[in-house]
């Protein structure tokens, strides 16, 4: 029998990063239970609503989900669904089922996360018919792969891989019929910050080199050099979770530069205060009535410390650089 590998500090650090997936999903579960937005599938991944979250946390998640979805849906509409999506560090994200219900499914949606997270997600999918049925129904041949560690179907594929190992990532995605010529949307939501700047640059460089027509949407921290940023870093550090990429989260400019230095033609970035003010205001007014917010300043500080940065390359001249809020 092969000797078991010793448990190292870096295993513990990776484990701490993986637990952020549960945090994100529980916060989204709670916010949806309060009516901030609709997600008809998240309860299959987290059954209990869980502990109450502060109103500013719920509003922060609302801005994150609505902001990212707005750009993502614009891309899909621009390409008339003749595209693919790669969600990097997808965790227990439910976008596949939302897009299916809204008739916005791309030709194929890929998700990547650590193998342990992927195995957990696949287990939920296999044991919950409302999750598995649409995947099976949309698959045309008898080649559906749905075992403990892999899912590959015509329209949806989940791959276990470490995003810091770009050549293995590339190999795995190609094995599952990734098509580099198709307009491609890459998405990372609170993921790049857990890699060193050189690891995340390698990843976005790989994406720029691989896809001639593509857009990258990245949501994560920004303005991290002030006191509020420092407290955020310390809180995560206490849980052994290091923000290895925090250097790139100094400003909107440093966020854009990561893309412009690695082969992307165009990049934009907005902090979440600005994104929040650009979301459909009738819906913002609706959610602002859901819960009383005592600490408006705290919400502002929180929104000031997150951003959406999006970049594009456009060989097919689809007008991707014009996609915006
Ligand atoms: C904060 S969670 C966000 C999950 C999801 N994007 C969302 O917003 O709900 C970060 C996710 O990135 C994944 N992740 C971070 N670093 C990774 C790496 N090097 N390789 C694969 N997955 C990674 C984690 O396992 C986790 O699922």
TrEMBL record:
GO molecular function list: protein C-terminal leucine carboxyl O-methyltransferase activity
Keywords: Methyltransferase, S-adenosyl-L-methionine, Transferase
One GO process term, biological-process aspect: regulation of signal transduction
Keyword Transit peptide: no
Ranges annotated as spanning the membrane: none
Binding sites annotated in the UniProt record for S-adenosyl-L-methionine: 64, 89, 162-163, 189
UniProt catalytic activity: [phosphatase 2A protein]-C-terminal L-leucine + S-adenosyl-L-methionine = [phosphatase 2A protein]-C-terminal L-leucine methyl ester + S-adenosyl-L-homocysteine
Methyltransferase recorded as keyword: yes
EC number(s) given by UniProt: 2.1.1.233
GO-annotated cellular components: cytosol
Similarity section: Belongs to the methyltransferase superfamily. LCMT family.
Known role: Methylates the carboxyl group of the C-terminal leucine residue of protein phosphatase 2A catalytic subunits to form alpha-leucine ester residues.
The protein's name: Leucine carboxyl methyltransferase 1
Gene: LCMT1
């Amino acid at each position: 029998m092969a000797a078991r590998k010793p448990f190292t500090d870096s295993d513990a650090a990776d484990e701490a990063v993986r637990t952020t997936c549960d945090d994100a999903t529980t916060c989204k579960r709670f916010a949806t239970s309060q009516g901030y937005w609709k997600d008809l599938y998240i309860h299959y991944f987290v059954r209990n609503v869980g502990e109450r979250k502060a109103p500013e946390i719920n509003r922060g998640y609302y801005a994150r989900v609505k902001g990212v979805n707005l750009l993502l849906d614009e891309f899909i509409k621009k390409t008339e669904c003749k595209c693919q999506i790669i969600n990097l560090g997808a965790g227990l994200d439910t976008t596949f089922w939302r897009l299916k219900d809204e008739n916005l499914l791309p030709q194929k949606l890929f998700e990547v996360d650590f193998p342990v997270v992927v195995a957990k997600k696949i287990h939920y999918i296999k044991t919950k018919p409302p999750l598995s049925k649409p995947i099976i129904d949309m698959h045309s041949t008898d080649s559906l792969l749905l075992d403990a560690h892999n899912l590959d179907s015509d329209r949806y594929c989940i791959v276990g891989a470490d995003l810091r190992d770009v050549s293995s990532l590339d190999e795995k995605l190609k094995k599952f019929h990734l098509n580099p010529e198709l307009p491609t949307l890459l998405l990372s939501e609170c993921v790049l910050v857990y890699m060193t700047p050189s690891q995340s640059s390698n990843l976005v460089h790989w994406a720029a080199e691989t896809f001639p027509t593509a857009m990258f949407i990245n949501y994560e921290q920004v303005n991290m050099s002030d006191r509020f940023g420092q407290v955020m870093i310390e809180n995560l550090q206490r849980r052994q979770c290091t923000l290895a990429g925090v250097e790139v989260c100094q400003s909107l400019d440093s966020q854009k530069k990561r893309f412009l230095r690695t082969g992307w033609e165009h990049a934009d970035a907005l902090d979440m205060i600005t994104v929040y003010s650009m979301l459909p205001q009738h819906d913002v007014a609706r959610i602002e009535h859901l819960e009383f917010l005592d600490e408006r300043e705290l919400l502002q500080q929180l929104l000031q410390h997150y951003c959406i940065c999006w970049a594009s390359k456009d060989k097919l001249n689809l007008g991707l650089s014009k996609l915006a809020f």
